[in-house]
Amino acid sequence: MGVSLRENRFYKSIAVLLCVLATGVSAAGCAPARSFEGELERIVKPYEFNLVGWEFNSIFNEVEDTFSGEPVDKDNGAVTVKEYFNIFDRIIRLETEIASIKSGEKTGEAVPLEDEISRLQVRRLALQKSAEPVLEGQIKDTLSGLGIYNPTDVYVNLSVTFPPVNFELADPPYLLVISPREKIETLRTVMLETDLSREASEKLETTVDKLGVSSLTVKLGGVATYPSFVSNRGDLRFVIDTAAHEWIHQYLTFRPLGFRYFLSLQGIARDYDVTAIDETLASMMGKEIGGMVYDRYYRTPGDTVPDANGETGFDSNKEMREIRKTVDVLLAGGKVSQAGAFMEEKRQYLATKGYYLRKLNQAYFAFYGSYTDSPTSVDPLGAEMRELRNNSRSIKDFLDRASFITSRADLKENLKQIAEQAK
Fold first, then answer.
1. Given this model, what pLDDT does residue 32 score?
2. Mind listing the pLDDT tens digit for each residue in 5-54?
3. What's the confidence (pLDDT) of residue 4?
4. pLDDT digit string (tens) for 262-294?
């Protein structure tokens, strides 16, 4: 049965308005900046992403779409989604071919290929407005099938998906990640404009580093604004996983874990452990729910998972874990300069193995280290969260348990209770 796009977008437009109001309140409630914060604000101001402006633009688009939508056929709509991503695959191949021609590695004419890309981009943009609500509906139905509706269903059983699943395939902002040099921890994050050049990124990092910190600009794959940003440069599975991941962040905002994470992001009560728990939970749930959506609507016979080590057999995950362990030891011993030199040496070594990183520093590990379910993570939190998932009756049970955890002590207590119940 088709879902009313008009009804769905009406509720989404209301959710966007609530998000805009929340953004305005949080911005108005900032305390006077201290010297570091004041200097940082001065440095990043020319590069900051205008989140409030983007949110207002989104609500007007949602209201407009409310009165022009048609029912969405989520099953047949998969054909449209596949065409959208097939076009993207073709564009990537053409871009690679053009780069080879321009570098002299391959002979041929680049102009006809560039013209083809232009035509494909027009078709892809036309498909996007149809592909987005199809994917949103498929994720929503999967959540409903799991009994996951809204954050209040712990107390009141209402079969209404809230926040409504809503994302835009777009070019997401960059994120400036700042860590102390003496330890690996997220000190501050700032959302930056979407078209930040490499030169501007490196200039900004150099200036910020003079404040005595370690910084890194990262191109985000998704952002839990409302609607969510989801990168339009990802493949189908990436987009589904990321859209589910960002929805979990939005859902968690109305539970203790997510609320504490929101306070940490706003600088009101910074808590690196809460950040790691929230990001790990969203990552785990995004992959599991995303896999269910992909299997139901898009998996075909013969689909395989790519070998993470490629053809070289080089285990980059193991190497990154060993690098992180050594850096932690050096920093714990107060050897900050040696840690920096070690990371640069290893960055160059990784490049010889085909694993290219623009920068490897404390901020890099602070950002990627918050996803403790990652194969590169050395944090035992990832294993503990997986243990909690494995001992939960269902995905919903896992989400309900984890969304009330606001410290590592809470997590250990939950695992202790599970172990006692198993006796």
1. 42
2. 444 554 454 455 455 444 443 433 344 445 888 999 999 999 999 888 87
3. 45
4. 998 887 888 989 999 999 999 999 999 999 999
- β-strands 167-170, 228-231 pairing: parallel
What one-letter code names the amino acid at 143? Answer: L
Euclidean distance between CA atoms 41 and 132, whole angstroms: 35
Q: Where are the domains of the chain?
A: 5-154, 170-422
Q: HEC string of the chain?
A: CCECHHHHHHHHHHHHHHHHHHHHHHHHCCCCCCHHHHHHHHHHHHHECCHHHHHHHHHHHHHHHHCCCCCECCCCHHHHHHHHHHHHHHHHHHHHHHHHHHHCCCCCCHHHHHHHHHHHHHHHHHHHHHHHHHHHHHHHHHHHHCCCCCHHHHCCCCCCCCCCCCEEEECCCEEEEEEECCCCCCCEEEEECCCCCHHHHHHHHHHHHCCCEEEEEEECCEECCCCEEEECCCCHHHHHHHHHHHHHHHHHCCCHHHHHHHHHHCCCCCCHHHHHHHHHHHHHHHHHHHHHHHHHHCCCCCCCCCCCCCCCCCCHHHHHHHHHHHHHHHHHCCCHHHHHHHHHHHHHHHHHCCCCCCCCCHHHHHHHCCCCCCCCCCCCHHHHHHHHHHCCCCHHHHHHHHCCCCCHHHHHHHHHHHHHHHC
The average pLDDT across 134-163 equals: 87
pLDDT (mean) for 188-210: 95
What does the pLDDT look like over 91-100, one tens digit per residue?
A: 999 999 999 9
